TrEMBL record:
EC class (word): lyase
Keyword terms of this UniProt record: Glycoprotein, Lyase, Membrane, Metal-binding, Signal, Transmembrane, Transmembrane helix, Zinc
Coiled coil region boundaries: none
Cofactor entry: Zn(2+)
UniProt xrefs under PANTHER family: CARBONIC ANHYDRASE, CARBONIC ANHYDRASE 9
GO biological process: morphogenesis of an epithelium; secretion
Domain Alpha-carbonic anhydrase residues, every copy: 45-296
One cellular component (GO) term of this entry: plasma membrane
Record-listed E.C. numbers: 4.2.1.1
Location of region: Disordered: 21-48
Name of the protein in question: Carbonic anhydrase
Its job: Reversible hydration of carbon dioxide.
Length: 378
């Protein structure tokens, strides 16, 4: 990011970061964007995940009707053919580019240069500001969003602001100001080299406020390779001040990191109270009539679909992580058709054999034969 915007973003990140222990990073405080000064909500009182149910006492928007995160329910998903693949620009950074990694007391946040942007899939362009993570503890998972009630091990958020505004701070208060890309993390069989670029430095920022410069790398590697399949809805920052200005994109494909990497993520950092920074996620928020859109069909029978000409960006719908695609549906239909045809053929063969069996069997005479009598003629 430019030197002019960097100071402002840093202050916002630090503030959001404190809340980040399970919600958004300091930069996008509230929805994965980042905001205020450390531990404070844009001039308001300090907050923490332990008092998340009382955030609305100091931050009015936290009690709004367009809050995040939400549960994405497959049965209520609306397929929108207007949603195109997300396109990223400038995400592959050379090792010579240094990035600031920080423990803001709420999460681990990586500052991103201004050259990173979303250039496709949205009606407007959005510039990256930072990314951060949300996780649970050794006792349970900690993603913010859930799919059909399932909570994943962790979740990454990449925060962007609309390029029509001069800065993140200005954009975050406008309805079309922010865009956050989210992806779920699960445990896999081997280390993820992209996440290792962050996790290998966690021991250097154990305490709140500590930061370290890390070499640039391909940031796109932290997100799914296929950016065509996702859910989208209008929501908020997931930490104070909870501004309801975020267009959320949650990818259907999850990312895999090893068990050792997951343990490093959930056990390395401390919050502003010196306690283990864990379970830094916000509880589910109500939909209140909002729609969750899906870029692909997520239901097998009678999937909902937006009518032609409708504005898919206006109100996305809820959608689950179902893996049924058009090809899968066709395969199932052909399978059913084949089964029905085979059954009909077998019934035909059975009837033919039954008829032949009746024709081949000898006809029993209705005449009753009696033994001949021998007469004595002598």
């Amino acid at each position: 990011m430019s030197r002019a915007v960097l100071p402002v973003c840093l202050l916002l990140l630090v503030a959001l970061g404190r809340a980040g222990a399970g919600s958004e990073p300091d930069q996008d405080q509230g929805a994965e964007e980042h905001p205020h000064p450390p531990g404070k909500g844009l001039g308001h009182t300090p907050w923490s995940y332990e008092d998340r149910d009382r955030w609305s006492e100091d931050y009015k928007d936290c009690d709004g009707t367009m809050q995040s995160p939400i549960n994405i329910n497959m049965a209520n998903t609306i397929f929108s053919p207007h949603l195109r693949a997300i396109q990223l620009s400038g995400y592959s950074l050379p090792a010579s580019e240094r990035l600031k990694l920080r423990n803001n007391g709420h999460t681990v946040a990586l500052e991103l240069p201004q050259s990173l942007a979303i250039t496709g899939g949205y009606a407007q362009q959005y510039r990256a500001v930072q990314l951060h993570l949300h996780w649970g503890a050794t006792t349970g998972p900690g993603s913010e969003h859930t799919i059909n009630g399932h909570r994943f091990a962790a979740e990454i958020h990449v925060v962007h602001y609309n390029t029509k505004y001069d800065s993140f701070k200005e954009a975050m208060v406008h309805p079309d100001g922010l865009a956050v890309l989210g992806a779920f993390l699960e445990m896999g069989p081997r280390d993820n080299p992209y996440y290792q670029e962050i996790l290998e430095h966690m021991h250097q920022i154990q305490r709140e406020g500590e930061e370290v410069w890390v070499p640039g790398f391909n940031i796109a590697g932290l997100l799914p390779a296929n950016l065509k399949y996702y859910y989208q809805y209008n929501g908020s920052l997931t930490t104070p001040p909870c501004y309801q200005t975020v267009k959320w994109t949650v990818f259907n494909q999850s990312m895999l990191i090893s068990r050792d990497q997951m343990l490093k993520l959930i056990t390395s950092l401390r919050n502003d109270d010196g306690k283990p920074l864990q379970n830094n996620y916000r509880h589910m928020q109500g939909l209140h009539g909002r729609r969750v859109l899906a870029s692909f069909q997520t239901t097998f029978f009678s999937p909902k679909q937006l009518p032609a000409g409708s504005d898919s960006s206006a109100a996305p719908e809820e959608h689950s992580s179902s893996s049924f695609q058009a090809g899968d549906v066709l395969a199932v239909l052909f399978g059913v058709l084949f089964a029905v045809t085979a059954l009909a053929f077998l019934l035909y063969i059975y009837k033919q054999r039954s008829q032949n069996a009746r024709l081949d069997s000898p006809t029993k005479s209705k005449v009753i034969y009696t033994a001949a009598t021998t007469e004595n003629t002598a």
